[in-house]
Amino acid sequence: MNERRVVIVDFIYDYPGRESGSTEELMGRKNAIWQSRVRELERTYNQEPGEAASFDGVFYPSVEEHFKLEHISGPDSRFLLSSERITLSLLQTLADRNVLGPKNNLLVSIGTAQTDSLSKFALMRVEGEAFGHAVKLIDPLGYLKLLQLGRPPAVELISEASTSGISSMYSAYAKIRKGEFDIALTGGSSAVTFPVPYELSQFGIGAERYTEPFEDGASGRYFSEGGAAFLLKERELALSDGDTILAEIKDISAGTMGNPVVNRTVIKKLVSRSLENAGVDPEADVFLELYGRGNEIDDTAEFSCLKTLQKSYRNLKGGFLKEGVHYIVGYYGLIGTCRLLDSQRMKTELQGREVASPNAFIGRIGAEQWSISPGDYRLYSAVSYSMHGNCYNLLLQLEAESVYRGGAGE
Hints:
It comes from Paenibacillus tianjinensis. The protein contains 12 helices and 12 strands.
């Protein structure tokens, strides 16, 4: 049963400023945006969040306006957390434009922020008629009942800080491989619903966090809202449904570094295990996208790990596809994958980032270690880490020409 193959047939992702590239403009208006978001909360929950000042981050000016949910009634929509609204919008979009098949077992696997449960209890102090609508959504999985899928799916929620997204995909991938499910909607989002006057997690240490990872002077990234969702299917089912197959998941491996700091030895073993599980030839061309936390310690460890891996896989090269994307908790590690799949679907060339001035500990980054042309590769590997030390490696094989039988998935 473990021989079943799992493919990605569709995906969707979003973050503030994605279309306009206006991160700096949003940061310049962050205090005004924050006050607008606070007023939205006051209208929704009939309570004042108090004196909560904005922290440095990239926020949607209005989650309600950006992610409209016309199919959900006003009373139900009113009590959705910001992250839940984004997640529902992403998942519903995938469901609406694809064939899910009423006779196939469907799983909805969600990766969520650990702060969402706290937000629910803090915000849902409502009384009277509104209580009846609010209480339905107190259950952390309750909002998923608002998805319109044509039949009830199995649902699960996974919370692993910065690796929640890849962890939910890992679970879905394993269950489809084993034959427990045929289709999975997996993903989620990170957003600020309950205003707090400080960063719950430190995403950077510098006042200026635009410097890209691996560059000299990198001091972390700004917190950013956003999310990503994927539609996974068993390969033969995808072909019979007429889906566009963008990539096959060859392996997802999980491990632990033992602490939040990147452990180069653990990551080397994790990526090697992933390549071995998939039967990748040591001479194969592999593009390894590094995570890029954007600080000297972790970035140096990642680059050291890359050079060690090249001793066993001499045609493996590193790269970074998340340029300009700030820290989306739980989904940062998957944004490079989304950009790669975007180029695969649109048949456009994705330019990787060249590291102009590597930090002093890395020293030099040459063409023998680094590639800015991910489109030259069919095997794509991406590592992700969490603040708890969890780590994952996602290994994809991109379709040389996206397999398409017509009808669905466009």
